[in-house]
Amino acid sequence: MPVIDRPVRCLPLLERPAGAAGEDDPAAPAAAAPFTAMGNFVCALLVSLGLEPGQLVVDVGCGTGWLAPQLATIPRLRYLGTDVSAALLRRTCAAVRRDHWQFLRAAGDASPCAADTADFVCLNSLFSHLLPSDAARHLADAARVLRPGGHIVFPFFDFSFDRDAIHARARIAGLHLDRLCPADRPLIPLEELFPWPADHPCGTSRCIGQSVAVLLKPQPPRHPRNPSP
User: Fold this and answer.
1) Residue 107 burial by Cβ neighbours in a 10 Å radius (0-12, 13-18, 19+)
2) What angle do the packed helices 163-172 and 132-145 form, to 10 degrees?
């Protein structure tokens, strides 16, 4: 797998994501660190996949604030974040301060987004915490809202999935496995150094303890026009 060569700027590690810990919690910086580091990585991955100003990102499970603050640095980006927790949604919304962004409470498996409209759908470790049947429904709905040519990105723990399982789930949802970033291999170069939990430097690329899958919604086949008689 080639190393991606489009770096982006990272947020400082101790910039606490909304709702990750209380304001007076002495463990707040430590609690924030993995969320911000993961957000830096995934934001860099989205940019490497072609994320540009004006595109639409649907962030499912956004309430931890793991990704929204990083995406807020991209101008004119359209964003829809969903979560089961209304309180976390309010805190994440307040943290990013983007008036035109939408934060909506999730109701069941369906995203409040029209079909074939999102350029990217991000699933925040959902598959590590859901039963297989629930995960399949979330993936099917993510495929529904994604436009042809768009990408679904989700981090996962290796004990939750294997490559064959991801291939099978992608096929059922009408998707292709575009790439798989292993947990133990640094693949995404970053523009600047930033601290890692336990004060380990991240360096210009880093493995993050979770693997990340990228699924692609293929373009519909083009049927040749019948020649004129």
Assistant:
1) exposed
2) 50
* Whether the Cβ atoms of residue 166 and residue 177 lie closer than 8 Å to each other: yes
3-state SS, 86-137, equals: HHHHHHHHHHHCCCCCEEEECECCECCCCCCCEEEEEECCHHHCCCHHHHHH
Question: Which secondary structure element, helix H or strand E, spans residue 36, and what is its range?
Answer: helix 28-48
Of the candidates 180, 71, 66, which has an alpha carbon nearest to the alpha carbon of residue 125?
66
Q: Is the separation of the CB atoms in 189 and 4 below 8 Å?
A: yes
Which pair of tokens denotes residue 73?
A: 């640095």
Residue with tokens 């924030």: 32
What are the start-end ranges of the E strands in the chain? 56-60, 78-83, 102-105, 118-123, 146-156, 176-181, 195-196, 200-201, 211-216
What global pTM score does this model have? 0.78
Residue 227, CA atoms < 13 Å, CB-side half-sphere: 1
pLDDT in tens, 143-188: 999 999 999 998 887 665 677 888 888 999 999 999 888 777 766 6
CB 103 within 8 A of CB 67: no
Domains and CATH numbers, the chain: 28-216 (3.40.50.150)
